[in-house]
């Protein structure tokens, strides 16, 4: 077999339909469970730290944690035994500091970008019964002060002087803080200590290790009920809530994931790139799974713009992706072929033929289509990816098909939340249906609950709020019984706040309960469903759909893809024909497999060529608005949106939604209340100044 060929899919399981455990209540479980007990434990480990010890015994000299010491340098590794020794020094040093200072709280803060020290310090906490509390910039300073005080943080590790100063400048509001451990002071240590004015001790990470060496203790991890992480949710409004992750919670999801993937799917030979924030539970779950199987974790350089370069050097085999990254890859390739009908046809044919191969249960990276198109793109991502895990948000079916064709490997979609310690459902290799997030993982059971405010009866409508119960779910929020009671009902069901449906016994996410809005005629609209359809256009970077009970139709705020939209309007001006624009466009929803043509017509689409104009000027161009409205009409029709679901007016914005302007949450979800408030005036105007109807 050639180097670029993968094993047949016969090594993977792909029977992904859930098992109906209770028809009366509508409770579904994994087929791996059936009528039996939920999966969620290990015979040889009662805590996560024991998983690490087991792996160190099996693979002491295997590389574990890697980083690049310079922007152009190779990855340098520490093996499992070396990392384990550092973990014990970290934990012993922390234990001595907290004991010497007579600190009552067992919580330790981690305020840093992904790096080996982050993971080793967390594992050090777990080795000695301490609790890790991740912090991150996008929480905002008020939320961070709340977390530090609620958990009574006495010790916080920071990676840079900037983050250390963020804490120092607010030390009057942080009465419990005693010590800041800094990974790299960049020659600024003396100045930082001066700024601390003796109130807070500043030490280097190396000093923590020395302290641990002087006061080395035998590991004393907590048992399965022991608390290991308090992971604060990054909700769009209100005070953050601390999800209490116990040893048994993490063990359950690791055990369940292993069962879903099956033997031989992943192994110690695999390599994972750590770039999704470790402050979020998803990346922590992934990295615990990696250490469980004895594989490698390579950390990105800290610059997301250099991610491809990191991947080219590291050559990861497992790619944990978010849809936004995959959209960018897809759009970039589509733009390159958009000017040539032959190239468009060739890409469409390549995707179709690759999917035929995958449909026959074979993943082959050495076809003619790989040589012509896909292998060149794969090399930009290291050329070794053999499994792709998608999380965070739904992905368009056409982009999912493209991703499968591109990487020619299993592409799994997962769904979960902080409170489920990772995925509560997951598709499996070989399941090519798409548009769903699989069956429940075998550590939980799932049902749909009625949503009275939406007139949804789960047993009647096969639609309702997704509720989950089981071994990988948290049992409480930290110091918040009221919020816990809102989350978990009297029967132990955790209410996710998401609306879902069962399709072929797989779970499909419709929207958030609180996101769905009611129109004046009484119809309900799920905005994320509609947004996903309109995001299919390559001319759209971001879209926010909104509506209310005072109006009979939805409207939208749209952030265009500046360069692509400008090119389309310039082409229209040169050709002086709106229909030619439509015939030359590509849509992610164009046909079953990727690139194709559309048929959009609208009066007045011709625009003067303004190649040097600003993004703001482009957004204010009426021709740009008309063009996108015609795109939306075509896409809405093709997707089968109901009349009341289709937006009737849009506002083009030159301000992208971002974490920095608070319009995206740290997990890249739309902060809907923030967006709605910021664009309140524009949204209101969209109902009163309707554009001319688009001609069919």
From TrEMBL:
| Protein name per the record | long-chain-fatty-acid--CoA ligase
Give the UniProt keywords, A-Z: ATP-binding, Fatty acid metabolism, Ligase, Lipid metabolism, Nucleotide-binding
Q: Which GO terms describe its molecular function?
A: ATP binding; long-chain fatty acid-CoA ligase activity
Checking SUPFAM superfamilies in the record gives: Acetyl-CoA synthetase-like
List the record's Gene Ontology CC terms alphabetically: endoplasmic reticulum; membrane
The segment(s) forming the AMP-dependent synthetase/ligase domain are 53-478
The family database entries (InterPro entries) matched by this protein are listed as:
AMP-binding_CS, AMP-dep_synth/lig_dom, ANL_N_sf
What organism does the UniProt record list as the source?
Schistocephalus solidus
Q: What is its EC number?
A: 6.2.1.3
**Superkingdom, according to UniProt?**
Eukaryota
């Amino acid at each position: 077999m050639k180097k670029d060929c993968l094993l047949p899919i016969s090594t993977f399981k792909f029977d992904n339909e859930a098992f109906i455990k209770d028809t009366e209540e509508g409770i579904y479980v994994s087929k791996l469970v059936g009528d039996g007990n939920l999966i969620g434990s290990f015979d040889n480990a009662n805590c996560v730290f024991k998983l690490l010890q087991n792996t160190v015994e099996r693979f002491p000299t295997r590389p574990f944690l890697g980083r690049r010491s310079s922007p152009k340098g190779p990855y340098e590794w520490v093996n499992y035994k070396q990392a384990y020794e550092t973990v014990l020094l970290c934990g012993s040093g922390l234990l001595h500091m907290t004991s010497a200072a007579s600190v009552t709280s067992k919580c330790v803060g981690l305020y840093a970008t992904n790096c080996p020290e982050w993971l080793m310090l967390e594992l050090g906490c777990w080795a000695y019964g301490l609790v890790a509390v991740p912090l991150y910039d996008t929480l905002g300073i008020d939320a961070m002060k709340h977390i530090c005080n609620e958990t009574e943080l006495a010790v916080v590790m920071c990676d840079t002087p900037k983050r250390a100063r963020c804490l120092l400048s607010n030390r009057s509001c942080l009465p419990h803080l005693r010590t800041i451990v800094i990974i790299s002071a960049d020659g600024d240590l003396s100045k930082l200590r001066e700024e601390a004015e003796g109130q807070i001790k500043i030490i280097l990470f190396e000093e923590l290790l020395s302290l641990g060496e002087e006061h080395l203790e035998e590991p004393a991890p907590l048992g399965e009920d022991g608390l290991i992480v308090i992971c604060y949710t990054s909700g769009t409004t209100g005070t953050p809530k601390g999800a209490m992750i116990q040893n048994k919670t993490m063990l359950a999801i690791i055990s369940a994931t292993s069962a879903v993937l099956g033997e031989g799917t992943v192994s110690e030979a695999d390599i994972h790139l750590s770039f999704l924030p470790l402050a979020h539970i998803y990346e922590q779950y992934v990295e615990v799974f990696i250490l469980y199987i004895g594989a490698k974790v390579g950390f990105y350089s800290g610059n997301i713009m250099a991610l491809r370069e990191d991947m080219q050097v590291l050559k990861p085999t497992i790619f944990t992706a978010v849809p936004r990254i995959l959209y960018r890859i897809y759009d970039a390739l589509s733009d390159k072929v958009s000017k040539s009908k032959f190239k468009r046809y060739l890409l469409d044919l390549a995707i179709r033929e690759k999917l035929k191969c995958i449909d026959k249960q074979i993943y082959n990276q050495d076809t003619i289509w790989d040589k012509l198109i896909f292998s060149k793109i794969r090399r930009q991502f290291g050329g070794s990816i053999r499994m792709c895990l998608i999380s965070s948000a739904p992905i368009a079916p056409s982009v999912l098909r493209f991703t499968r064709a591109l990487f020619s490997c299993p592409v799994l979609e997962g769904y979960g939340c902080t409170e489920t310690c990772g995925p509560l459902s997951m598709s499996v290799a070989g399941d090519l249906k798409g548009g769903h997030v699989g069956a429940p993982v075998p550590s939980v059971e799932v049902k749909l609950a009625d949503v009275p405010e939406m007139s949804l009866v789960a047993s009647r409508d096969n639609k309702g709020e997704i509720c989950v119960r089981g071994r990988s779910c948290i049992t409480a929020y930290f110091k918040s019984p009221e919020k816990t009671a809102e989350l978990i009902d009297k029967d132990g069901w955790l209410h996710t706040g998401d609306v879902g449906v069962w399709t072929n016994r797989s779970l499909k996410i419709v929207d958030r309960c609180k996101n769905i809005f009611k129109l004046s005629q009484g119809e309900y609209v799920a905005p994320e469903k509609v947004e996903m359809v309109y995001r299919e256009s390559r001319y759209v970077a971001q879209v926010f759909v909104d509506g209310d009970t005072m109006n009979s139709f939805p409207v939208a705020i749209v952030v265009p893809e500046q360069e692509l939209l400008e090119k389309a309007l310039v082409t229209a001006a040169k050709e002086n024909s709106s229909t030619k624009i439509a015939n030359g466009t590509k849509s992610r929803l164009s046909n079953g497999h990727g690139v194709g043509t559309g048929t959009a017509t609208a009066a007045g689409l011709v625009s003067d060529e303004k190649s040097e104009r600003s993004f703001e000027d482009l957004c204010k161009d009426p021709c740009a608005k008309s063009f996108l409205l015609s795109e939306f009409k075509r896409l809405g029709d093709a997707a089968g949106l109901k009349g009341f679901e289709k937006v009737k007016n849009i506002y083009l914005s030159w301000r992208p939604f971002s974490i920095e302007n608070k319009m995206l949450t740290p997990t890249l979800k739309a902060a809907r209340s923030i967006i709605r408030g910021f664009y309140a005036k524009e949204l209101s105007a969209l109902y009163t100044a309707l554009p001319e109807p688009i001609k069919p």
